[in-house]
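During the no-cost extension, the postdoctoral fellow (Dr. R.K.) reprocessed legacy sequence entries with the updated structure-token encoder. One reprocessed record is reproduced below for audit purposes.
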Amino acid sequence: MTCELPPTPTTAIDWDNLGFKWVDTNGYVKHVFSEGRWDEGEFVRSSHLNIHICAPALNYGQECFEGIKAFRCKDGQVRIFRPDINAKRMMYSADISSMTPVPEDIFVRACERAVANNLEFVPPYGSGGALYLRPLLLGTGPEIGLYPAPEFTFIVMVIPVGNFYKSGVKPVDCLVVETFDRAAPLGTGAAKLGGNYAPVLKHSSAAKEKGYAITLHLDSKTHTNVDEFSTSNFVALTYPSPEHGNQPIFCAPDSPSILNSVTKQSLVQLAKSFGWTVDSAVIPFTDITNNRFEEIAACGTAAVITPVKTIERDGTKTDIGTPATTGEIGAGFQRLFTAMRGIQNGDIADSYGWMQPAEGIRPRKEP
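Re-encoded structure tokens follow.
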């Protein structure tokens, strides 16, 4: 069963030149938790949120967020990629930041409602673009003391975004951040809090000015093990070996200080479906310098996979296998990227139930 076809993409946007910046849409979905319960929510036709000046979100950083994408699929329907997993992660982040978690059903319905009211802003099928969803949970009730807010506001805003790789997936250079630790060993690194990102901005901006597209963080305690990139998870593929059926091993760091990326979880499932071994363990930085990996990449919602060709630390640059040699994404990550985007676009059967709802999102226009 499928829904009626959604509205076609608006002609007011130049879809061929759409980037990753704010674009006004029809509005956002808003829910409020007050007096022990979540309300039914509303669709707000605005790009602004009225908030008390004494809200803990503003004064103490009591907030968390998520990043999700919705796609216009091959059959014409619009579906959201794994919102239930993001809902579970936000519940964890809310608990870490002393907020009342948003129940999974409210979270998913709010995402679908936001998309349903903005279907004309979902980029065309085959364009490489998507409708980016930003669920945001804030402590909004006034509280000047160091206590949790008496009221919480949950919103889901949407932004049409373009193809991250208009010229193809190209490897980038990476710099290890040595002067700043992203997260403490027993801190908030596994939660998606704004406070984990703002302090990194000046370091990543300085690196970009020097030609490094991304920055990498090591564990805060010893600075010897890989944690994650500033914006996304670290994943790697070893050189194929006979003992593993001439297939690579998919490697990801096991650390309590990194975000449990929905993209990474999905890539792990795909890797297993290919018959690859998946290894989640501590990754010493020396595994990089000793050339254990044929491919290294950052993975996340924005780009799915960003291959890395060099990693520099303390002035020493290490070339990363195939990407450094060819200047192109390696065969292993290309296979994963193609499979992931194929499922998201509806070009490949979604045997995992990742694209939701299966029947597509029904158009909705609220006043």
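The chain is about 20% helix and 25% strand. The helical segments are 56-59, 83-96, 104-116, 201-209, 262-273, 286-289, 321-326, 331-345. The remaining legacy entries will be reprocessed before the final report is submitted.
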